[in-house]
Every structure is written in structure tokens, then in C-alpha cells.
Amino acid sequence: MAYRQTLGRRGEDLACALLEEQGYEIVARNWRCRRGEIDVVARDAACWVFVEVKTRRGHGAGYPEDALTDRKLLRLRELAEWYLDSVDVGEVDWRIDLVAIELGPTAADPRINHIRGVDAL
Q1: Cβ atoms 12, 45 nearer than 8 A
Q2: Is the pLDDT of residue 80 over 80?
Q3: CATH number (domain holding residue 15)
């Protein structure tokens, strides 16, 4: 597996563990359709949550929080609507969260920042 895929998988594992600790139910990981991919689909009580996970090792590529562009956010909104249509749940509350992860040289004690409702900021 390529380095970026391994890093991304590690970040998603950490994000899912954090979300589960916070009481979220993980519904799907790496949901794909012809328009793109959603990293994590979860439920926070009755609210559906579409989670973008950004993982970095160091700051060479910038902070992971900075990687969620307006264009990517627009795409995530579209994908969330596609997902909800595909599972036919009707009208439900939903939001987009960001889990930004920075791994240190040893991957011990990563910095994890869970930002709820980035689509409303």
C-alpha cells in the first residue's frame, strides 16, 4: 500500500475511534459513488454526519485544517445529498464535520481536532 494510503487509513482509524468514543455510530467508511468519496458516514443520535478526515505528518503540506477548501466542501455537500438519497432515509438532519489529525515522528499522541459543522461556519 502506498504511503499516502497508509497515512490516510491510519487517520481514518483514529478518527473513527474518536467518534465512537464520543458516542457516534459509524455507518460507513470510504463510501464511493461516481462523483467522489466520503471518508466516514456516522450518526450522532438522530443527526447524520459526513466526516472529512485530513491527516498530515508534519507541516510540510500545511495544517490538516487548511486542506478543506471551499471547493471540497461544496463537493462534500453534494456527496452527502447523494448518500442520503441512495439510502432513502427521507428528510433528516445532517452536517459535515472535519477531523484534522497531525501525526508526530513516532505516531504517538497524535493531535486530533474534531470540528463539528464545518459546513455551517
Answers
A1: no
A2: yes
A3: 3.40.1350.10
- Give the three-state DSSP class for 9: helix
Q: In this structure, is the dihedral angle defined by the CA atoms of residues 65, 76, 32 and 14, taken in order, positive or negative?
A: positive
For every residue of 103-120, DSSP letters joined together read: E-TT--S-EEEEETTGGG
pLDDT band at 113 (very low <50, low <70, confident <90, very high): very high
The boundaries of the domain holding residue 98 are 3-120
pTM above 0.85, yes or no: yes
How many domains are contained in the chain? 1
Query: How far is the C-alpha of 16 from the C-alpha of 43, rounded, in Å?
Result: 12
Alpha-helix residue ranges (DSSP H) falling in the chain: 3-21, 70-87
Q: Can you tell me whether residue 75 is helix, strand or coil? A: helix
With cell 453534494, the residue in question is 78
Which DSSP letter does residue 55 get? E
Question: Which cell goes with 24?
Answer: 457516534
Burial class (CB in 10 A: 0-12, 13-18, 19+), 94: buried
pLDDT on residue 8: 83
